[in-house]
Each structure stands twice: as structure tokens, then as C-alpha cells.
Amino acid sequence: MPIVVNLDVMLAKRKMQSKELAERLGITTVNLSILKTGKAKGVRFDTLESICRELDCQPGDILEYRED
């Protein structure tokens, strides 16, 4: 898939665990895991906004386009 989710990278940079981020966002760890592994079919802008706010980053830090 040409869209790569770099959420693990940002979590590591911020020294935060997935569980903590999920709690801050008010979503389940399972849903966050689906997003982290790139298995999500989409992401809502308000969720992306919340992730960026909590991790102090830009959407481009989390989502990346790579040609096959």
C-alpha cells in the first residue's frame, strides 16, 4: 500500500506508549493498533487532529506516501 503510517516512529520519539495515546484520544488500543499497522481503511480528520495535538507533530509526520 502506498500510504505508510509512521505512528510508531512518532510514539518512540515522544517516548509514549500506545496505551497512553489511546487513553488520551479516547479510543481503544485495538483501534489504535489497526491504525498503526496500516490496516485501517481511513482515518477521520478529527482523530488525526487529536493525534497531532497529543504528539505535537504534523499529519505528514504520521502519514507518508511511497510509490510501489
Automatic annotation (TrEMBL):
Coiled-coil region: none
InterPro entries: Cro/C1-type_HTH, Lambda_DNA-bd_dom_sf
Superkingdom to which the source organism belongs: Bacteria
CDD domains associated with the record: HTH_XRE
PROSITE patterns attached to this UniProt entry: HTH_CROC1
UniProt-recorded Gene Ontology molecular function terms: DNA binding
Span of domain HTH cro/C1-type: 13-62
Name of the protein this chain belongs to: Putative transcriptional regulator
Source organism (scientific name): Sphingobacterium detergens
